[in-house]
Amino acid sequence: MAEFNNVSIAKAANILFEGNITSRTIVFEDGSRKTLGIMLAGEYELNTVHKEIIDIQGGILEVMLPAQDWVRYEGPASFEVPANSKFKLRVHMLVDYCCSFIKNN
Where are its TM segments located (predicted)? Predict the structure, then answer.
């Protein structure tokens, strides 16, 4: 999907790691949400509450999910992160991404 229609967009950015990861939250009519953002080169550790599906539009990074080895992704690509977990990123080249949050029912 190249664009999203009928959404609300937060004016304030989500800023992590001194601005090295930034995003904007978008909310759909059904209440589901995604973030659209960029990640600058660096190493990061993030936490999840809900399951996340991260779609890489462009860029290169490696991801270490819980109990797994590093896996390299070059956009376009996607990967899933389990709910209630920590994961590590090594961003090698600016990453343009969309993150979908999947709430448990």
Answer: none
Q: How far apart are the C-alpha atoms of 56 and 88, rounded to whole Å?
A: 15
Q: What are the domain boundaries of the chain? A: 9-102
Does residue 103 sit in helix, strand or coil?
A: coil
Task: Return the structure tokens found at 84.
Answer: 């209630």
How far is 52 from 73, CA to CA, in rounded Å? Answer: 16
The per-residue pLDDT for range 70-103, each reduced to its tens digit, is: 999 999 999 999 999 999 999 999 999 999 999 8
CB 26 within 8 A of CB 7: yes
Q: What pTM was computed for the model?
A: 0.91
Residues in Cβ contact with 96 at an 8 Å cutoff, skipping those fewer than 6 apart:
37, 38, 56, 57, 58, 59, 75
